[in-house]
Amino acid sequence: MNIFRKLKKYGVLGSIKKLARKIRLKQIYEHYFKDKTGLEIGGPSLMFFNNGYMPIYKLATVIDGVNFSSDTVWTGDMDPKNGYIINGKTGTLYISDATDLSMIPDNTYDFILSCNNIEHIANPMKALHQWILKLICSNICVKWWGG
User: Fold this and answer.
1) I want to staple 48 with a disulfide (CB 3.0 to 4.6 A). Which of 15, 35, 56, 81 is the partner?
2) What gap in Å lies between CA 147 and CA 58, rounded to an integer?
3) Taking the C-alpha atoms of 98, 102, 104 and 106 in order, what is their torsion angle to the nearest 10 degrees?
């Protein structure tokens, strides 16, 4: 939406407020993701790419990925030998259920990302428990329910 349509739709004050919220959000998420190492469950996710709502991929040093299969409807064929390639950065690709991350040492990641996955997991509490174990103490887990 171009600037004139936004001004017409939200007015000057409304447009300024929306921009301020976007800037604050960017400052907040940059603090948590810039130059950090993360794990994404069930990605890659459009919302985390450069033009997405929360462009985290470009901020992180590296992001590893977990997918339930090497060949899915969403990603096509993913070979773990090639790694988890996001924004030209290559992380490790794990083929595993989201409830079994035993191949990953605990306290490994600064953050964990997941977008529209938890509702598809048979035991979501077990999955969340596994994800939290992989976080370095007191760091964050981003779970996004789409909209």
Assistant:
1) 56
2) 22
3) 100
**Cα–Cα distance list, 64 to 48, 121, 122 (Å):** 14, 20, 23
Locate the DSSP E strands across 11-134: 37-41, 62-67, 71-72, 76-77, 84-86, 89-91, 93-95, 109-115
DSSP annotation of 132 reads H
**Distance between CA atoms of residues 138 and 59, nearest Å:** 20
* Maximum distance among all Cα pairs of the chain, rounded to whole angstroms: 53
**pLDDT at residue 24 is higher than 60:** yes
Q: Are 111 and 141 in contact (CB under 8 A)?
A: yes
pLDDT in tens, 65-110: 999 888 777 777 788 888 898 888 999 999 999 999 999 999 999 9
- Residue 105 amino acid letter: P
Residue 70 tokens, joined: 């090497």
Give the phi and the psi of residue 96 in degrees, each rounded to 5.
-165, 160
